[in-house]
Specification:
Layout (H helix, E strand, L loop, with lengths): L3 H6 L2 E2 L2 E3 L5 E4 L4 E2 L4 E2 L3 E3 L4 E2 L4 E2 L4 E2 L4 E2 L4 E2 L4 E2 L4 E2 L4 E2 L4 E2 L4 E2 L3 E3 L4 E2 L4 E2 L3 E3 L4 E2 L3 E3 L4 E2 L4 E2 L3 E3 L4 E2 L4 E2 L4 E2 L4 E2 L4 E2 L4 E2 L4 E2 L4 E2 L4 E2 L4 E2 L4 E2 L4 E2 L4 E2 L4 E2 L4 E2 L4 E2 L4 E2 L4 E2 L4 E2 L4 E2 L4 E2 L14 E3 L5 E4 L2 E4 H14 L4 H24 L6
Parallel strand pairs: 3-6, 4-7, 5-8, 6-9, 7-10, 8-11, 9-12, 10-13, 11-14, 12-15, 13-16, 14-17, 15-18, 16-19, 17-20, 18-21, 19-22, 20-23, 21-24, 22-25, 23-26, 24-27, 25-28, 26-29, 27-30, 28-31, 29-32, 30-33, 31-34, 32-35, 33-36, 34-37, 35-38, 36-39, 37-40, 38-41, 39-42, 40-43, 41-44, 42-45, ...
Antiparallel strand pairs: 1-2, 2-3, 47-48, 48-49
Helix pairs in contact: 2-3
């Protein structure tokens, strides 16, 4: 095991202390080595480096000034650590890891090969970073985080405890992830995005800039959100959904698969849309649309009182539809059977309106 005295007593050749077994060490001033420390070949220890007991350091490792290691740290080959880095107990850094200045790593952290951490990164306890992870400057990760291979995190972001990030995920600057957030493989998140506690994103999800997702929002696979989108608590979104810029979804909104919402759409709390629905720009709903799929697909929407009906681009009072549904469907080339079918739908809405009025189901006096 290596000691400061053994290294200092070794002959100096070209600025290196050469140990009896041929290993070369550069030792700065005021270096402290604990018991049972093992150093590889071509190791450089800067001024004021403090290494705890049982630390193992590979070859071609460069430790800058003021670095502090606790008990049981293991460093692979070709590791570079910036100034004043601090590593907790039983930290494992594999080969070709690079840490910037002022990095702080908690206890029981495992970092795979070719990981790069920028300046002032803080890693909590019990964390695993996969192969090739790149983390920018001033990033803070909580305890029990799991980052897959090839994850890229930008600058100035904060991730809570228990965050799980899949492989090849990319996060922009200023991202904040709450506790127990889960990101699937291939997720891409823009800048200044805030994901609250318990948010879950499936594989291939893409989020633009300036997005906020409420607690326990769940997005399935290959969902795309434009810039400035805001989702309330408990929102659930199916596969292959696309939301334009500045969409607002209230709490507990549910969107099925293959839904497309244009820009500036606003859905109030509890609205539920089925599969394959498209809403244009600026649509605002404070109720759950009634969706009826006939022989010719379409979505019928009814307001909370059952008095206004929209089908396609036509939005008219219920009484108008009663008088004109057959004319409209005939004019649009519907078969006689389809005309009867859509007339029946309008009569269904008449019945619903009567129920609304009789039982005050919308809660209004």
């Amino acid at each position: 095991m290596d000691t400061v005295k053994e290294i200092m007593d070794a002959p100096v050749v070209d600025g290196w202390h050469v140990l009896p077994d041929g290993r070369r060490i550069i030792l700065g001033n005021y270096v402290k080595l604990g018991d049972d420390v093992t150093l590889g070949d071509d190791v450089t220890l800067g001024d004021g480096v403090t290494i705890g007991d049982g630390v193992i350091i590979g070859s071609r490792v460069n430790l800058s000034d003021g670095i502090t290691f606790s008990y049981g740290v293991k460093l692979g080959d070709d590791v570079i650590l910036g100034k004043y880095a601090k590593l907790g107990d039983d930290v494992i850094l594999s080969s070709n890891v690079s840490l910037g200045d002022g990095v702080t790593i908690g206890n029981y952290v495992s970092i795979a090969d070719y990981v790069t951490l920028g300046d002032s990164v803080i890693l909590g306890d019990y964390m695993n970073l996969g192969y090739g992870v790149k983390i920018g400057n001033h990033v803070e990760l909580g305890d029990y985080a799991e980052l897959g291979n090839g994850v890229i995190l930008g600058n100035y972001m904060k991730l809570g405890d228990g965050v799980i990030i899949g492989n090849y995920v990319k996060l922009g600057e200023g991202v904040k992830l709450g506790d127990d957030v889960k990101l699937g493989n291939g997720v891409i998140i823009g800048s200044n995005v805030n994901l609250s506690d318990g948010v879950s994103l499936g594989d291939g999800v893409t989020l633009g800039d300036d997005i906020t997702l409420g607690n326990y929002a769940k997005l399935d696979n290959y969902v795309t959100l434009g810039n400035g989108v805001s989702l309330g608590n408990g929102v659930t979104i199916g596969n292959y959904v696309r939301l334009g810029d500045d969409v607002i979804l209230g709490n507990d909104v549910v969107l099925g698969s293959n839904v497309v919402l244009g820009s500036n759409v606003n859905l109030s709390d509890g609205v539920k849309l089925g599969d394959s629905i498209t809403l244009g720009n600026g649509v605002s709903l404070s109720f759950t649309p009634c969706q009826i799929i006939g022989e010719r697909s379409g979505m019928w929407q009814v307001d909370a009182d059952g008095q206004i009906i929209r089908f396609g681009c036509i939005e008219k009072p219920l009484a108008w539809w009663v008088e004109n549904v057959r004319y409209i469907t005939k004019h649009e080339g519907y078969t006689l059977q389809q005309q009867d079918q859509y007339a029946a739908y309008v009569q269904l809405f008449v019945t619903l309106a009567e129920i609304h009025k009789k039982y005050n189901v919308d809660g209004q006096s």
